[in-house]
## 1
Amino acid sequence: MEDFEPKIVAFVCNWCTYAGADLTGTSRIKYASNVRIIRFPCTGRIDYMLLIKAFDEGADGIIVSGCHPNDCHYTSGNFHARRRWIMFRALCNFVGIDIRRIKFSWVSAAEGAKWADIVNSTVSSIRELGPYDEYKKVAGRPVKEVAHG
Amino acid sequence: MDDLIKRAKELLESSRVKVVIGYENGTDGKTRALFAEKPGDADNLVFNSRCIMNLAAYVTKKEIRNKGKMALIATLPVMRAVIQLASEYQVNDDNLLVLGITPESKLIEFKDLAEVEKFVHQFQIEIDSRNKEMLDKIEKMTPSERWDFWIQELSPCFKCYACRAACPMCYCSRCTVDFNQPQWIPVPSHELGNLEWHIMRAIHLAGRCIDCDACYNACPLAIPLNLLTKRMLQDARENFGGYQPSLKADHLMSTFKPEDKDNFIL
């Protein structure tokens, strides 16, 4: 498993986490390059199907991140999102999807360092878990991926 | 059930309703839906323990709604479904009259949906012991055992969507599975599409499912897909104190509390 580089997809909101991740860059904080960031208007816009699709497309881990409670640009999008995550997480767990591979976080536009920490810790924990072969097998993807990057 | 037939006839004769939706004898010892439009049609109405399908699934169908005011013969789960549909603005007092059948098999006619709601609220939605045992059993498995269990259980599914057709809450004119740009759910009868379809179905019913088991009863392969929605029901209870279909209260998933659990969020 030495040569395994996890693929992480991050679903982030435009107003906090995306700006936070931007700050990570402009602050020249180095962090794992395994993450592909997808920007959304709000965490409230993140459909469950998108998370499922990420696993479909071969992701080994997912990060979902948005504004801290009470900081939502649209007032309550992140509160609604949180409710959905609670139910979605429970359902994923019930059907046997490995919920250790889906990380949720609040990262504000000022928390560049926190974003680096979240990505680094996610990458290292997914590296320990190994590639998500269970899902890849079902999705018809090659289970032994050649290291890249 | 003479009083049921009598009442249905009266309603149709007086033109108070244009169609009575009830059960009639079908083939193979089963019952099926009857849409009585003439008083004479009402003679075929039956009601017995074999009447398990949720007739509320029909009140959102254009073909039936266009006939005019509907009367619906409704057991407790059907009444729950009606209240949920009313809260989602799918039915109202102008287009629906509920002829209730109490758990003691007594006919009870409701003046309006508010009365139906009151009746429904006397009873909690309860998951029966057999299903509860099954849920506990699955709960005790390891995640990868659960994964194998569901891949196995869902493998015979060929996505006939009988579960969707039977469900009173699945009334979207265009369902996510019918979209192909993008193709959210792969169409072939294959593990991936099956899994995704059932996850999607369950999650879209979160906070709305009234646990009538119509989906399970409709499944030609007896896939225990109702366990997924039952689990969602339990999760709603554990996390948000549960829900009852209600005309006025906020829907479980379209509202929030600032103190909702967030111990899993980094």
Note: The mean pLDDT of chain A is 89.
## 2
Amino acid sequence: MNGRGGRTIKVDTLARVEGEGALYIKMAGDRVADVKLKIYEPPRMFEAFLRGRHFSEAPDITARICGICPIAYQMSAVHAIERALDVKIDPAVRLLRRLFYCGEWIESHALHIYMLHAPDFLGFADVIEMAKDHGALVEKALRLKKIGNRLVQLLGGREIHPISAAVGGFYKTPSKAQLDELVSDLQWALEASLETVRWTSTLQFPNFEQDYEFVALRHPDEYPFNEGRLVSNHGLDIDASEYEDRFLELHVKHSNALHSILRGKGSYLVGPLARFNLNFDRLPEVARKAATDAGLKPPVKNLFKSIVVRAVELVFACNEALRIIAAYEPPGAPRVPVPNRAATGQAITEAPRGILYHRYSLDENGLIRTAKIVPPTSQNQKRIEDDLREYAAQLAAWPLEEATWKCEQAVRCYDPCISCATHFLKVVIERD
Amino acid sequence: MSSKKKASVRPRIGVFKFASCDGCQLSLLDAEDELLGVVGAVEIAYFPEASRNMLKGPYDIGLVEGSITTHHDAERIQEVRRKCKKLITIGACATAGGIQALRNWKDVDEFVRVVYATPQFISTLKLSTPIAEHVPVDFELRGCPINKYQLIELITATLAGRKPNIPSYSVCMECKRKANVCIAVARQIACLGPVTQAGCGALCPSYDRGCYGCFGPMETPNTAALTSQFRIMGQSDHQIARAFRSFNAWAWQFRKASEECERP
């Protein structure tokens, strides 16, 4: 089949994404008639059953939204509740939380770059097939990922759904000696990340640039994890408490999905590309240089180059982890006491895939009255569809099978986490 | 193509997802030191989270993550069962209904209204139920999330046709073995360790907090005795009910314990 006449690009099960989704693109000649990114992951309704639970349970419960980025959920939860209750945490705890996030970024980015995304560029169905021809590359990926996981494990007890994060701090904090044991591995990981930047920059990228509104946190002097104002390249500059005034979850009829949009504007992009473009000057010298040498200069507007940007963020995360460990002095106490009080608080943190918004209203006993959670993938979802509208038109003359694979790849550039997005999306399977 | 045919003499594994967070199947990819060994010994025939190759069944082992929460999934699990010689459920969602089983005590329509703007379009079952309530299950691997070493042991044992070495005693045994001072006795911290199955390595007590039961009930849990002990420690019935009602809330022993706390 060629680009003549109507055709449908269909991927019934999107592979190498976290969770279950499907993609439908309807073409009318060279024109794209309709794009649907369908999420058929069943709803789990976290916001409903959080009601009546104590705030101290929020980090453990919300972690279960996503097995890939549980730390992001724990960090947005503890920061939102601490903001509600006006809790001042120990500066050492603040740094440990950044370190915790470094671990998640390292394992998540290594997983995505090498095991989920690289097979697209090298022409394999999966990392297992890829390992046969690129054994050394896969071994490097696994070691990198393992180092991220070790960091998470040390601070949190285990890689998936760690158990140590608490409102007010941690249940237990590591000794200096325990952290020092990670230094040689992290030094290796930093070198491996620099190699990853160089390697990813040699891949072939489709020429696909869009005029995105990039949205990310921005901190006065750090590359963002847990703090900062929410900014964009089109003038947005707000506190987390203003998030719901500026962003709207829109019910789109064709897919019955809640899409997050900027009020009065439309889709926007969160994640590595947005962070990098808005915070290039906050990256450490080693990451900036790696990016520049790889030919990246903000603003990077080619979605497909996300893989290189993710590699630059790997460099940052390894470097940041080493910096924090070198300066580490254990906090006086693992956590500060947090009294029950009626209050409302919001927080935004930077999950590997982009900003994650939490809001909690608590009653006088510290029980959750209402909760709202907006994960990165539901924020990117409309942008993914907008991209596919443009991209599928470019591929109109391509054979259907190749065009389908290319569109699938475009979706994977977002590293979408459908398990996360689902709890907020309407899910319908359309059958002809 | 010929290499694929040759490869198919290896036992074939399929990984299937229902309502869940993806964490348990990620455990397979998180087994960084074992992964290449595992994929050398078996053929990963169906694992959409990791591969575009989605090969048709039958499968020698089906790993099932997630609980049943929709009509469609209730039908799909029957189809998955038919295609798998051995069906193994992995994690608290698949073995006990997961955290989403908290809906089972509530009006699910109200839950839907809380989360979704247009509730009439949501099709969901009133209950979140474990896989074994729908089809016969050959082994249930516990944990929220599962322990990746237990998963490797389970796959190895299943392929060898032997019983997996996965103990059903309590977290207390692991705590003793680690020489942890008992946080419940020494520090009066409410801990579900005595009624919870081992498998995590007594993580929470090792991090100075009480076990919250993510591996579900141990073989013969005395939840009534633990409830009395919690009351002596000053816990309210509401707190105790909440403690039993988390990631394994619908496991019958925990369910009974939480419901007993709610009786007037």
Note: The radius of gyration of chain B is 20 Å.
